[in-house]
Specification:
heterodimer, A: 5 helices, about 35% helix, B: alpha+beta, 21 helices
């Protein structure tokens, strides 16, 4: 079984576009969607409403930089400071090319920093490349289930 | 040669009098000048009187033949050894063949060996031992942290007990050279001079110079008849003998007349040298002639040296203390001066410290045409004229005087407030001055005799020397003078000036920093514009993305999907438009000038609620609005802030029926505080610090639509009014947003 991809995205439009892009990439991985930083950490640490989820880390985390409450950088920092989460690849997915965001992300140990292209075709290709690059290199974890938080 | 009669002396030449080369000695002993081989080159004319041989007969003969074998045997070794220095050394006491006893002093000076023979009554050598207790007693007391007056008093008493003079005084010289009696020890029948002043002319310049070189001088009998040296000129140099260090050196006839006028027939002076300068004298008087033996003189000399050292250390200590205090005030001053930006305002803010700094009575700041004063100063017109005069003088450093009218006659009109002036030019370019004024210090000087007597008595006969004849106390009241400026005050003022320039430089640096800050602001603006493009790019991307998807799905039957894509596109376009508007208003917030006026908050709130009508639609909103105070604020900006808060309240109560929104205020003396409370969704207090940041949202887009700029706008508006903004909430139970508007006018 493939490990899931964790998508952290608050903007419903971006979420829909990303999910479409991922589906276009023909990746078999399940996509777990959480809607803000706090939820992402709950999922990763198996706490709160995710306390009973199956053990195992996602293949890759696609993390939006600007999130309500706990933002992407804070989530990234927490991941890198948590022993069993450290090795999980994190891709920062953002509209911002702002230098300080980039610098800070790399300082905090991001694996990739992807600026969402405005052009949709390019957007789809970028997401697909990401998914293949990060998700396909990993052994599929057993018993993962697709989870999309209901609205 | 006899004593010069007063008529022959030229008063104007008084300070040129050859006191070092008088050509004669006092006759209480005799003098021989010798070659290194101890051959007599010169002898004083009174040689026969003491040694039984005519001076002329002695010339060219070996010393042995003049003073006899035993005396020669006693002295030859030291006189001939070539080891004598410039200061007379006591070589011993000898007895001549005629039975007379002499203390012998030798020194090498003016290319001669000078041997002085002072007649004494005792055959035994001078005994210094009994003087040590006196000195050690003085030393013991000196260590008791005595003040200078106490020390001088002690010294006067000791010198009198050592020498037996009828009156011993300690003089201190002021900067002008006038001497004042600061301590005195005397017999009951001597007149007191304590506290009186003696004019500088009493001790002419060359006498002072000699006092500095040679620390003791004795005149045993003012009625003495000097014994000239024969031959009258130094055979080696061909000039009059330099007797600077000779104990028997004859003194100026003018001085002897002065002594006789004063009723003093014997006198001795011990120099007090502090840091190489003549600080004062221990001056001894006696109404009758008085010999002072070499050991007594030595004791007095040592006492003088110890006293000098003590004075030096006390003066150093008090000087240091004084400097520390002035410096402390200066540092305090500078601390204040670095704060504000306006120099004049800053300076005038520290007027009291400025006064204390220079112990002044008044202070003025002149900056071109502006004049600010504090304390007791001349009037503005006078200060303006004075600063013009200063500018014309071209002083670039500190100018100071304790007698302004002497250099600037118009100051005679305001001597009361400004007899003393210290002026600090604070700009090399502009006519800017800091002026300190010291009031007139009316001084009564009690002179020991009218120092102006001569000038008054013989204005047309300046060549006529007439030494003062009266020493009766004569009071003079001195006007137009202030307390003199202390060297520490002058020096620290110079330092103060460089510190001021430093502050000016720092200010320039601050300007540079400001420029840097502007640069930073520009960068912020860049970052801001990037954020703009970021948040603007998202809806743009959505529009493009969903349009593409719409085209892609054109052939499919999924109508719902197409409908949703269309809705997304429309929403994204609307959001983009709103973002542009909000960002525009936010960026204006930082730049636009505030136009504060009285704003009735009741009117403002109802206008905002009217505007919210469309957003509210058919919803059920209960408004509870207290009576609100009027504030000083920019009405349009404040309207935007309140509108944002009310709009937030409306937005986050969307799921409530009814929505309850309360608005009330607390009107305090310093500020008015406004609160907007709702019963809506609220927010997690953990993220309250992000609440007012740009593009920060604590809720998901689809839950509560917003650009994430509204609250940032509120904060910026309130802060520009120098107010504060804060919020409190319990998640799920509503939120309260508060802001304050100070009563003082906002920064325009």
């Amino acid at each position: 079984m493939l490990k899931p991809i964790l998508l952290v995205e608050d903007n419903p439009n971006d979420l829909e576009l990303t999910l479409i892009a991922l589906s276009k990439s023909q990746l078999a991985n399940e996509v777990v969607v959480v809607r803000d930083g706090a939820e992402a950490l709950d999922y990763l640490k198996r706490q709160g409403e995710f306390a009973s989820r199956a053990v195992g880390n996602p293949a890759v985390i696609l993390l939006d930089l600007k999130l309500p409450k706990v933002d992407g950088l804070e989530v990234l920092k927490e991941i890198r400071q948590t022993e069993n989460l450290k090795p999980v690849p994190v891709v920062m997915l953002t509209s911002s090319k702002e230098e300080q965001d980039l610098v800070r992300s790399y300082e905090l140990g991001v694996n990739a920093y992807v600026v969402k292209p405005v052009d949709f075709t390019e957007f789809v290709r970028a997401i697909a490349d990401l998914g293949i690059f990060w998700a396909v290199l990993n052994e599929p974890p057993p018993g993962s289930r697709r989870y999309v938080k209901p609205k | 040669m006899t004593q010069a009669s007063p008529e022959q002396l030229d008063l104007s030449a008084c300070d040129r009098e050859p006191i070092r080369t008088p050509g004669s000695i006092q006759p209480h002993g005799f003098m021989l000048t010798l070659s290194p081989a101890l051959e007599v080159l010169q002898a004083s004319a009174n040689l026969a009187q003491w040694a039984g041989m005519d001076a002329g007969e002695a010339l060219g003969r070996p010393l042995r033949e003049v003073i006899g074998e035993p005396a020669h045997a006693r002295l030859a070794l030291e006189l001939g050894s070539g080891t004598l220095g410039a200061r007379p050394l006591y070589l011993g006491t000898v007895t001549m063949e005629n039975g007379r006893h002499f203390d012998v002093l030798g020194h090498a000076w003016d290319k001669l060996v000078i041997a002085e023979f002072e007649a004494v009554d005792r055959p035994r050598p001078a005994d210094f031992r009994h003087l040590y207790p006196l000195i050690s007693d003085f030393l013991a007391r000196v260590n008791e942290h005595a003040s200078i007056p106490a020390l001088t008093d002690l010294a006067a008493r000791h010198v009198r007990s050592v020498t037996g003079f009828g009156r011993v005084m300690v003089y201190q010289f002021d900067p002008a050279g006038h001497g004042r009696v600061v301590a005195e020890s005397k017999d009951a029948d001597y007149e007191s001079y304590l506290g009186q002043s003696f004019p500088a002319s009493d001790i002419p310049a060359q006498a002072r110079e000699l006092y500095t070189l040679s620390p003791i001088r004795l005149i045993q009998d003012a009625n003495y008849v000097p014994a000239p040296l024969l031959p009258p000129h130094n055979p080696v140099t061909g000039k009059a003998n330099d007797l600077s260090f000779a104990a028997l050196r004859s003194v100026s006839p003018v001085h002897l007349q002065y002594m006789r006028n004063m009723g003093t027939l014997a006198s001795m002076s011990v120099s007090l040298l502090v840091k190489g300068k003549l600080w004062g004298l221990i001056s001894c008087h006696n109404t009758s002639p008085r010999p002072v033996s070499v050991e007594q003189r030595t004791a007095c000399e040592q006492l003088g040296q110890i006293l000098s050292l003590c004075i030096e250390s006390r003066e150093d200590a008090s000087e240091l203390q004084f400097r520390l205090e002035v410096r402390r005030i200066m540092v305090e001053l500078l601390g204040h001066l670095t704060k504000g930006s306006d120099f004049l305002e800053n300076m005038s803010g520290v007027f009291p410290e400025l006064l204390r700094f220079a112990r002044a009575g008044g202070v003025a700041i002149v900056a071109d045409d502006r004049i600010l004063t504090y304390g007791d100063t001349p009037d503005e017109a006078a200060i303006r004229a004075l600063s013009t005069w200063l500018a014309v003088q071209g002083h670039v450093e500190v100018f100071h005087t304790s007698h302004l009218a002497a250099v600037y006659p118009p100051a005679g009109a305001f001597t009361r407030s400004a007899s003393g002036l210290m002026a600090l030019p604070i700009s090399r370019i502009h006519k800017h001055y800091l002026l300190w004024f010291r009031p007139e210090l009316v001084q009564t000087v009690e002179w020991a005799g009218n120092p102006y007597e001569n000038k008054i008595a013989a204005p047309n006969a300046p060549t006529q020397l007439s030494p003062r004849t009266s020493f009766a106390a004569w009071r003079e009241t001195i006007h137009g003078h202030s307390l003199p400026w202390h060297s520490a005050e002058i020096e620290l003022t110079t330092e103060f000036r460089s510190a001021l320039l430093g502050i000016a430089l720092e200010r320039a640096e601050q300007m540079a920093e400001l420029a840097e800050e502007l640069g930073r602001a520009n960068k912020e603006l860049e970052a801001f514009s990037y954020s703009v493009s970021h948040d603007l790019r998202a809806p743009l991307r959505h529009i493009v993305g969903f349009s593409d998807l719409l085209l892609e799905s054109a052939g499919t039957e999924d109508a719902d999907r197409r409908q949703r894509f269309l809705k997304n596109i429309k929403e994204s376009a609307r959001l983009a438009g709103k973002l542009v508007d909000d960002l525009l208003s936010f960026s204006q917030m930082g730049r636009a000038a505030l136009r504060p006026t009285a704003v009735d908050m009741n009117d403002l709130v109802s206008a905002c609620i009217d505007k919210l009508g469309i957003d509210i639609g058919q919803r059920n909103v209960d408004w509870h609005i207290d009576h609100l105070p009027t504030v000083q604020a920019d009405p349009s900006f404040l309207h935007l802030a309140v509108y944002n808060l009310l709009s937030n309240a409306v937005k986050f109560t969307a799921q409530r029926d009814p929505a309850v929104i309360r608005i009330w205020a607390e009107d305090g003396p310093e500020e008015a505080v406004f609160h907007v409370a709702d019963n809506g969704a609220g927010f997690n207090m953990d993220y309250v610090h992000k609440l007012f940041g740009v593009f920060q949202r604590l809720h998901r887009m689809e839950d509560f639509q917003g650009t994430g700029i509204g609250l940032a706008n509120v904060r910026r508006i309130v802060e520009r009014h120098n107010g504060r903004v804060w919020a409190e909430s319990r998640q799920g139970e509503g939120a309260t947003f508060s802001f304050s508007i100070p009563k003082s006018s906002p920064t325009p």
